[in-house]
Design goal:
There is one protein chain. The protein has 126 residues and is an all-beta fold. The strands form two sheets. Strands 2, 4, 5, 6, 9, 10 and 11 form a seven-stranded mixed beta sheet that branches. The protein has a four-stranded antiparallel beta sheet with strand order 1-3-8-7, with no helix packed on it. Strand 4 and strand 5 form a beta hairpin. It is globular and about 40 Å long.
Length: 126
């Protein structure tokens, strides 16, 4: 059973940057595919980015492509989300997710993930 803890959220002005981090404990992090999602109250959880467990393959939602970079450090059991050129519509609670994987895939559907963090609030406002 993996435990995920996100950090790095906060209030930022439009055009600013934030770096979210997620530390994964329990299980073997190097066997997990990981991803980031976000959710606004009253809306369904939305895919943001995903990264495979070992080959560096990544996938991004069109809404963030070119502004967001997902990365992971298997030695530190962390997955990061660097967000630049933030917009008010990026305001949401951001969740880290993980799932066991042995094929090097990336996953966009929230139902594909077994483990979730508690979320960290990102607010983009002037």
């Amino acid at each position: 059973q993996a435990r995920l803890v996100e950090s790095g959220g906060g209030l930022v002005q439009p055009g600013g940057s934030l770096r979210l981090s997620c530390v994964v404990s329990g299980g073997t992090f190097s066997t997990y595919a990981t991803g980031w999602f976000r959710q606004v109250p009253g809306q369904s959880r939305e895919f943001v980015a995903a990264i495979s467990r070992f080959n560096g393959r990544t996938d991004y939602a069109d809404s963030v492509k070119g502004r967001v970079t997902i990365s992971r450090d298997n030695a530190k059991n962390t997955v990061n989300l660097q967000m630049n050129s933030l917009k008010p519509e990026d305001t949401a609670v951001y969740y880290c997710a993980a799932r066991p994987d042995y094929g090097g895939g990336v996953y966009r559907a929230s139902a594909d993930y077994n483990y979730w963090g508690q979320g960290t609030q990102v607010t983009v406002s002037s």
